[in-house]
Amino acid sequence: MKYLTIILFERLGLLLVFAFVLTRIPGFKSLLYREYSKRMSFVHACMFGLFGIAATITGIVIEGDSVVNREFVWFVEDDQMAVSSSLVAIVIAGLLGGPVVGLGAGLIAGTHLFYLGGIGVLANSLVNPLTGLLAGLTAQFFSNERVISPWKALFIGVFPPILQMQLLLIFEPHSDDIISLVNTIGLPLVLSNSIAIAIFTAMISIVLREQENEAALATKQALTIAEEALPFLKKDSSRDMASGIANLLYDRLKLAAVSVTNEKEVLAHKGLGEDHHREGDQIITALSHQAIYSKQMQIAHSRAEIQCNHINCPLEAAIIIPIMDANDATGLIKFYFRKAQHIRPVELMLAQGLGQLISNQLNTIATEKMKTHIRDAELRNLQAQINPHFLFNTLHLIAALFRKDPEKARHITVNLAHYMRFNIGLVSSSLIHLEKECQHVKAYIEIAQTRFSSQLQIFFSEPDGISEVFIPPSTIQPLVENSVQHGLKDATTGGVVKVTIQKLDTFIQVSVSDNGCGFPANILNQAGHQLLESDKEGGAGLYNVNQRLIHLLGDTARLHIRNLPSSGSEVYFNIPYKD
User: Fold this and answer.
1) Distances from the Cα of 351 to the Cα of 253, 289, 314, 435, angstroms
2) What pLDDT, in 10s, does the model give residues 545-556?
3) How does strand 470-471 pair with strand 507-514?
4) pTM of this prediction exceeds 0.85
5) CA distance linking residue 407 with residue 402, whole number of Å
6) What is the 3-state secondary structure (H, E, C) of 480-522?
7) Counting beta carbons within 10 angstroms of the beta carbon of residue 303, is it exposed (0 to 12), middle (13 to 18) or buried (19 or more)?
8) Where is the Histidine kinase/HSP90-like ATPase domain (predicted)?
9) End-to-end Cα distance, the chain
10) What are the φ and ψ backbone dihedral angles of 172, each rounded to 5 degrees?
């Protein structure tokens, strides 16, 4: 019995080598992830059936109480019995593939045993499909586990050899030879089969964990590189972007070389072959054109496929990754390797993931730039608008002044010209010097003060040294106009508007206040922050100014609005500033 056990374990070594090769087959993953289909069930049943046949062929032959020495079992005499580990393959088939795969594999292995013949042929043939079916039904109790743990497999593996012994005794209950054989092979089969099943499930768990660790590592690395690549992707110059990406990938991935191209030429190359893979070289590789045309990753497995004409080029393989912009491939990233054997599944997974992430980031950046351009155009359009009523009223004022005070009329005409020139020129800039904005406000104040000289006074104060401070154009003037038209709309005399600009610790505060009626309580908290349905209280002007301040200077520059304790209101904002 001891000798038989040792021989069975020796033969199991060959079986486990075969099992290791089996785990490397790409289709084997579908079993681990429970991806069943009729076609794959048939393929796996055949695969494990052949595994069972291989276990039988590498088994041993028992004749009486002795072992017949054979390297492989190709035939069995009538007075002999084939003893093998075919049940190991059938149990694994049932545990991984379910009842259908287990039964199919058992039928194939059982049919082979039936044709081999020998003692106990019916029991040996029947135990395989029966074991496969029972193992498949058992696996349904562990459906939440992709691979049953080795300890559970060890326990399950005890029962198929016991079932085989029982069938042998059932089919030939009065044979002393069968009883003697059962006593001889029973314990060795139980030990070898259960341990082999446990080892095989442990092997599968290790392979699965290895694959998942590689996938997790590749995903983490791809995400990290994609994040680090973001500053380069935002560069306006395509060559600067390509150079930054090439250097980053070369440093992080330890590749033989990295190239970044557009649709026509090489933009950057880093690594081996820099002496002849140069910036500006035209794309001639057939696989590169195919990657751009098909929008699919391509792999060059030889120097011939790379199509490098340099005799001593050290690069022999490459992964060519298309970079997508919307639905078009606008460029390529090439990972170069010294040997084709260096291209492992993890490199392919990493390359594909990086290509998708970088393409997504480019699309996101393009969308953000488009939104920024649209928003900037909208803001400049708002800034450039001239109130027609203000223009007509000022022209009427100038016409009246020419009869009464020609000098004053000329002065107001100059201020109106300055005011209009400033508004027309707004579309050329998003930010201007605060000093210029103050000149614009003073021009408006001169006109408004002349128009409403009997109703109000406008005071303006500003500090020195504000020439280097930037502000969105036409920001203060709408606040002054809002006070004149809405805050003091009911004032017939004694109206006062104060425009105050003062330096504080880390910012400059701009404040416009009046002694008018103030904001109605129902819109005080909404003014400037929401576009009000009615513009009777100056809602649109305040909202537009607030949006320009937030988008161009940040949230800290937003408008603050409050009613003053005595009367009137104050609107102010802060401009970030450092000496």
Assistant:
1) 10, 18, 21, 53
2) 888 888 888 888
3) unpaired
4) no
5) 8
6) HHHHHHHHCCCCCCCEEEEEEEEECCCEEEEEEEECCCCCCCC
7) middle
8) 471-579
9) 95
10) -135, 70
